[in-house]
């Protein structure tokens, strides 16, 4: 058997101390303060956010930390613990779509977006470090954006975030919008907004029911320990090429389907109206048939989105009823839909999900964008180690790269 590898979260004080030390070492002197923001898992509601749908993410205890000092002028200087040497320097006046490569885009993109929104934001020095696994589908990029956002908010007196004790949700929605713009326009990833929203607007002990049609949120109590349950996260370590292209292609297919159906977003298609909508797509004229995507593919994409939104409602109804033991079926159905209809799973994710279920998980599914990344499994608290061991064994038996594991407890948003 293979011993599972666990990825622990840093204590917040340790994370802050790390970036303070990094700041002093690379820039000299002291930062004005430290800020941090979490990665996330999504319980259910995948690839629904850019369709105006519902999703149900929560914040991980794993966070990205930033030590930041306001400076004169408009130059941002950046260092990262993940880069052994060097300081990146970017003038905010030079930031525009396509001008910034790599991780600094997530930081300066946020400052750029806040400036575009009319806020007086200038230069700063920033040192970052993170215990959010990279490229694992756990939103390390959103964590970096949101840590930068709350830092800039505090240093330039934007007064949007509120305090850690009393977060200002309306202000945080404004910060989230800036982070989403940074990701879409400066980092160049056409993602939907779930990740930035939960990193800024989530709440410890709760999942965030996010309605992406109007941006409204509801904090749904989510305490698995009270039910002797736990959420096991399996980072498959699978890296897939063409991720951005595939994600953008799914989004484009949804937009094309909405156009054919004459709706603003696929959210407007209800489960009752799904049959008619699919028939229209299957037999439709116009963009369907002429385009590269054939009608049969659009049918499956839309079926995923509409049924997935309904599964979020089922899942939340069970939580509201204190019946969390019963959400497994919706998780399993979500995975099947993402695998077969939306086609964003991969071998490693399927192996993780099946091995976890075989070992006793109540439900399991991929989480996040897919094509690699992480899966989640709802397990009895006493069986966390056994399920992880079974998944690690299944990966070894299939000659897959060893996965990593973490236990996800709904934690605090950015502050
Ligand atoms: C990624 C994106 F960033 C989100 O916006 C969302 O679309 C998710 O994939 C799929 O649900 O995390």
Automatic annotation (TrEMBL):
This is Galactokinase. SUPFAM superfamilies: GHMP Kinase, C-terminal domain, Ribosomal protein S5 domain 2-like. Residues 22-70 form the Galactokinase N-terminal domain. NCBIfam families: gal_kin. GO terms for cellular component: cytosol. Its EC number is 2.7.1.6. PROSITE patterns: GALACTOKINASE (PS00106), GHMP_KINASES_ATP (PS00627). InterPro entries: Galactokinase, Galactokinase_CS, GalKase_N, GHMP_kinase_C_dom, GHMP_kinase_C_sf, GHMP_kinase_N_dom, GHMP_knse_ATP-bd_CS, Mevalonate/galactokinase. It is an enzyme of class 2 (transferase). It comes from the Bacteria. One of its GO terms (molecular function) is ATP binding. The keyword ATP-binding applies. Residues 318-396 form the GHMP kinase C-terminal domain. Keywords: ATP-binding, Carbohydrate metabolism, Cytoplasm, Galactose metabolism, Kinase, Magnesium, Metal-binding, Nucleotide-binding, Transferase. It holds the Pfam family GHMP_kinases_N. Transmembrane segments: none annotated. The keyword Disulfide bond does not apply. It comes from Cellulomonas triticagri. Belongs to the GHMP kinase family. GalK subfamily. Residues 106-202 form the GHMP kinase N-terminal domain. GO terms for biological process: galactose metabolic process.
